[in-house]
Amino acid sequence: MREVLVQLNGVSKKFLVPQKGFKKEKKYVHAVNNVSLEIFKGETLSIVGESGCGKSTLGRVINKILDVEEGIIKFKGIDITKHNPREMLPFRKDMQVIFQDPYGSLNPRMKIKNLVSEPLLVHSELSVKEREKKALELLDMVGLSSSHGERFPHEFSGGQRQRVGIARAISVNPSLIIADEPISALDVSIQAQVINIFKDLQERFNLTYFFISHDLSVVELISDRVGVMYLGNLVEIGDKKNIYNNPKHPYTEALLSAIPVAEANKKRERIILKGDIPSPIDRPAGCPFSTRCPKVFDLCKEKMPILKDCSDGKSEHKVACHLIK
Ligand code: ADP
Ligand code: MG
Predict the structure, then answer these.
(1) How far, CA to CA in Å, does 57 sit from each of 97, 184, 197, 247, 293?
(2) What DSSP string describes 219-277?
(3) Which of 2, 15, 93, 209 is most buried, with most CB under 10 Å away?
(4) Is 100 in the pocket of ligand 1 (CB under 6 A)?
(5) Closest ligand to 47 CA?
(6) DSSP for residue 278
(7) Which of 237, 234, 274 has the alpha carbon at shortest distance from 254?
(8) Is residue 189 lining ligand 1, measured as CB closer than 6 Å?
């Protein structure tokens, strides 16, 4: 049996829309709706979906940067849903976050060697000398040298800064790394290098990644399992091969049809979706995808489909679509 690291049960997160004037009715952005999923120890679970579908919010919900209105969040079997910041302290070290560009969070006046070991100041009692030693080890793990350690963030390229972001995250031996579009800002040639660092470190330290990306080509390279979000809902989730080779949700089919495939015989028909993504403030009744779905029928406009097992019994595959009986 695989060990569950994170469990989400029916998690929802909404944001109050600031109102102008004296309107009484409160409006909410429904960023994440009734999401249930597991993240297993040592795996990479990726979440894909277009901008604004709630991926980053889901990441922030998992590490409790945001509180939820509904649902339950468990980390290592412990219910942390209602934990306040003080109660979260013992968990902080164990869940680290990597952002798209760590530049904003790196103090420009600190040397790289001090930046990579900075989290150890808070989370360990290492001496200055021990921290320095650890900093050099960390730089080596992400493919940087000791001379890089003497430099400052502005002297680094985007790819090198992301290596620093990764080194900082792993410095405190976390179980979970939430990586929010960590390579989206990098050149394609650099992306592959950084993916390899992620994979290498995962193998060495049995890390678990919650990998957020809108890029399905990248997700295919790094994931064990993949979840697809649309308008705050998890519409499909399963083993990577099931999602990529046998997508069941019409939205997943459309997303996949847009990625170029190398082999000519695997060429897919590009599915062009009509219309825009509806506003997460005024969500459509029924299925969130019903306003754009090429396969929509009456029931879809009335009833929200729930995630159902559609697997072959061997590997995980779930989809929320009325077409799947
Ligand atoms: P993604 O990461 O998939 O692009 P987000 O999780 O950032 O999506 O956002 C989901 C929705 O929630 C969007 O409509 C976004 O505008 C809204 N949203 C995110 N954070 C906030 C916030 N702090 N306050 C208000 N609305 C927010
Ligand atoms: Mg985001």
Answers:
(1) 13, 17, 25, 25, 25
(2) HHHH-SEEEEEETTEEEEEEEHHHHHHS--SHHHHHHHHTS--SSGGG--PPPPPPSPP
(3) 209
(4) no
(5) 1
(6) P
(7) 274
(8) no
Q: Which tokens is 162 given?
A: 């992301």
Q: Per residue of the chain (325 residues), give pLDDT as tens.
A: 799 999 999 999 999 998 877 777 889 999 999 999 999 999 999 999 999 999 999 999 999 999 999 999 999 999 999 999 999 999 999 999 998 876 677 889 999 999 999 999 888 889 999 999 999 999 999 999 999 999 999 999 999 999 999 999 999 999 999 999 999 989 999 999 999 999 999 999 999 999 999 999 999 999 999 999 999 999 999 999 999 999 999 999 999 998 877 665 566 778 888 888 999 999 999 999 999 999 999 999 999 999 999 999 999 999 999 999 8
- Give which of 283, 223, 213, 273 is closest to 249, Cα–Cα: 273
For ligand 1, atom 12: residue with the closest CA: 31
Helices (H), the chain: 55-62, 85-92, 112-116, 118-123, 128-141, 146-149, 158-170, 188-205, 216-222, 240-245, 250-257
> Residues whose CB is under 5 A from ligand 2 (ion)?
56
SS3 state of residue 190: helix
- Give yes or no for residue 280 CB within 6 A of ligand 1: yes
Per-residue three-class SS string for 52-79:
CCCHHHHHHHHCCCCCCCEEEEEECCEE
- The number of C-alpha atoms within 13 Å of 288 and in the hemisphere containing its C-beta is 26
Q: Rounded to the nearest whole angstrom, what is the distance from the C-alpha of residue 312 to the centroid of ligand 2?
A: 32
Reduced to 3 states (helix: H, G, I; strand: E, B; else coil), residue 39 is: strand
Report the SS3 class of residue 28: strand
The model's pTM: 0.95
